[in-house]
């Protein structure tokens, strides 16, 4: 949980600036522009920096916000305070429409898609009669409170910076929540997040809307600052510039958006005022110098200026330990002795010509540790992916407690109490261990984005973090709780994945090579943990290459070779099975 003190200091400083004696009015105008850009950049921080969705089209949403209020206040005489929610609503609704189409694009197609609608909407603004075509709309009324009209840049300054401060606060609150963790997992961990119930397309759409609403807010303020709108500031070039601002400031950080806006707006202003004095008659030179300076800046601070500045601050000590006495509701356990938890029947998966899993059948009973072994490429991980819904089987069927789940996506499988770890660790490296593990409890929390922004989610959130902390302690990583997951050794990261999987309150735990990279002592601790879990009522299905580990731990072993099950039985029978020895264990075993 981050402190909110910096934002209070920021608000006080911004409130004091206009009262500094001798403050040139020109600087206030500049600060107004910085605030307007900062709002848009803040949205891009969430969308692009955190969510990994690059958008060149944000200027269009600024346009929607600006034109909505321009039209409604001039043609229909509505009060600007009434058009504020409408401007935000229209930007948000259009984000839903454009987002539904665009968000599903991947790779280069997404930024190209946003560029396309950025261009398209610009032409729409400049062609529509009721929006005044290229001339736009003028005589927009100023914002006013009672008889006080915000006519000067110095008076609307307060409205702009109140908007920036509140938006920063709400955005940071959102990022520091259940929904925020889902958003932060979009860029580098969506497969894992989905395995814990995160609905990725919904999270993407949410950041799209959030960014668009912030841009719409900027547009609404812009319209009442300029008191006139025309299409030019909402074109694709402006869209590119907003992205630039976010990247220069530090696209992963809310304050990066604000800082980037300050850097870019001031740099442009300085160049425009002073460069002609140095290089007379220069038309395009300032654009070139501007570009060179920004590239130089990014060389110096590749992640953006904000994180670069922060790296000079002394490192903050770890966060507070959550109150582990708080409890989440637990899953009702199926009673009865001989329950077959998981049944795999003739599961088959074909990748082109390769049959990765060839009509494999086995089951996992309640309170049982089953090991899946076999040489590399035998189809073990693919079997895991079939069970957890990451892949769907070519044929055959998979049932959980007698219910067929063949076509269920990962988000549904996890609801049944099956959780997993990944052979190739999938943690969000720039989130703490605690935050990563808390993603495992995603489905056990209920707070949505709005309550997170308003901090109404604290009770819910405290329980999620308590559960995460408990599971981290259980796997023996309490000391690393507040470290970034990416800073841990690979072996420890695997253990973090187990803690995350345990946060599901699973009935069945699927572990893909959990002991890889662990030292001897750590392996013994892991074996003890897994036995304890089984004795506590959980089942475990694990893939592992360390035969000493498997033979001592598993109740039953299933052996795969070239996608086919070649043996199944207790460790003692598997050890002496001639076919298994030939295919996998070798003579030495
Ligand atoms: P194991 O985990 O037992 O080492 P895998 O299940 O990863 O084996 O792989 C089994 C076979 O399926 C291998 O031949 C592998 O190359 C192939 N395979 C696995 N995943 C894919 C995929 N997504 N696309 C194509 N082939 C795959
Ligand atoms: Mg594998």
UniProtKB/TrEMBL annotation:
TM region positions: 7-28, 34-53, 60-78, 84-102, 109-126, 156-175, 205-223, 243-267, 288-309
UniProt cross-references to SUPFAM superfamilies, sorted A to Z: P-loop containing nucleoside triphosphate hydrolases
The keyword Zinc-finger is assigned to this record: no
PROSITE patterns for this protein: ABC_TRANSPORTER_2
UniProt keyword terms in alphabetical order: ATP-binding, Cell membrane, Membrane, Nucleotide-binding, Transmembrane, Transmembrane helix, Transport
ATP-binding keyword on record: yes
Recorded GO MF terms: ATP binding; ATP hydrolysis activity; branched-chain amino acid transmembrane transporter activity
Cell compartment(s), UniProt: Cell membrane
One GO CC term on file: plasma membrane
Domain ABC transporter: 342-587
Topology within the bilayer: Multi-pass membrane protein
Primary localization: membrane
Source species, domain of life: Bacteria
Biological role: Involved in beta-(1-->2)glucan export. Transmembrane domains (TMD) form a pore in the inner membrane and the ATP-binding domain (NBD) is responsible for energy generation.
The protein's name in its UniProt record: Branched-chain amino acid ABC transporter ATP-binding protein/permease
Organism: Bradyrhizobium zhengyangense
């Amino acid at each position: 949980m981050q402190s909110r003190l910096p934002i209070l200091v920021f608000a006080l400083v911004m409130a004091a600036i206009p009262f500094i004696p001798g403050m040139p009015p020109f600087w206030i105008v500049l600060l107004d522009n910085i605030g307007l850009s900062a709002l848009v950049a803040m949205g891009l921080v969430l969308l692009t920096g955190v969510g990994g969705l690059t958008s060149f089209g944000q200027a269009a949403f600024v346009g929607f916000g600006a034109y909505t209020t321009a039209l409604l206040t001039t043609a229909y005489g509505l009060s600007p305070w009434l058009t504020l929610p409408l401007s935000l609503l229209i930007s948000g609704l259009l984000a839903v429409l454009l987002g539904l189409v665009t968000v599903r694009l991947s790779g280069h197609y997404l930024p190209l898609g946003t560029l396309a609608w950025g261009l398209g909407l610009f032409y729409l603004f400049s062609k529509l009669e009721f929006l005044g075509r290229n001339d736009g709309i003028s005589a927009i009324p100023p914002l006013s409170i009672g008889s006080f009209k915000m006519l000067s840049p110095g008076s609307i300054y307060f409205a702009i910076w109140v908007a920036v401060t509140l938006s920063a606060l709400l955005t940071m609150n959102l990022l520091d929540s259940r929904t925020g963790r889902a958003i932060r997992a979009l860029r580098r961990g969506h497969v894992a997040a989905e395995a814990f119930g995160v609905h990725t397309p919904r999270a993407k759409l949410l950041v799209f809307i959030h960014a668009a609403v912030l841009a719409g807010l900027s547009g609404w303020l812009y319209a009442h600052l300029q008191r006139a709108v025309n299409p030019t500031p909402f074109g694709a070039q402006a869209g590119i510039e907003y992205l630039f601002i976010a990247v220069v400031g530090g696209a992963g950080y809310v304050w990066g958006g604000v800082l980037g806006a300050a850097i870019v707006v001031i740099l442009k202003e300085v160049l425009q005022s002073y460069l002609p004095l140095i290089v007379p008659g220069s038309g395009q030179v300032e654009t070139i110098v501007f570009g060179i300076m920004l590239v130089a800046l990014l060389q110096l601070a590749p992640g953006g200026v904000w994180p670069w500045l922060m790296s000079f601050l002394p490192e903050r000590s770890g966060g507070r330990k959550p109150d582990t006495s708080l409890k989440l509701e637990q899953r009702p356990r199926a009673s009865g002795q001989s329950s077959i938890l998981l049944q795999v029947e003739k599961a088959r998966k074909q990748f082109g010509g390769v049959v990765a899993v060839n009509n494999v059948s086995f089951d996992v009973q309640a309170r049982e540790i089953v090991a899946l072994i076999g040489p590399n490429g035998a189809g073990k991980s693919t079997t895991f992916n079939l069970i957890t819904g990451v892949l769907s089987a070519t044929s055959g069927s998979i049932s959980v407690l007698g219910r067929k789940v063949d076509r269920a996506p990962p988000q549904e499988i996890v609801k049944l109490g099956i959780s997993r770890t990944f052979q190739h660790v999938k943690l969000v490296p720039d989130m703490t261990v605690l935050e990563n593990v808390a993603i495992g409890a995603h489905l056990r929390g209920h707070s949505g984005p709005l309550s997170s922004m308003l901090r109404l989610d604290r009770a819910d959130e405290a329980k999620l973090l308590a559960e995460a902390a408990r599971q981290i302690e259980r796997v023996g990583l309490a000391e690393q709780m507040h470290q970034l997951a990416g800073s841990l050794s690979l072996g420890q990261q695997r253990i973090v994945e187990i803690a995350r999987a345990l946060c599901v309150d699973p009935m069945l735990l699927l572990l893909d090579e959990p002991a890889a990279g662990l030292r001897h002592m750590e392996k013994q601790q892991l074996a003890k943990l897994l036995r304890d879990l089984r004795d506590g009522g959980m089942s475990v299905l694990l893939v592992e290459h360390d035969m000493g580990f498997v033979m001592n731990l598993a109740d039953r072993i299933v052996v795969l070779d070239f996608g086919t099950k070649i043996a199944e039985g207790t460790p003692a029978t598997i050890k002496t099975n001639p076919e298994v020895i030939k295919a996998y264990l070798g003579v030495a075993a």
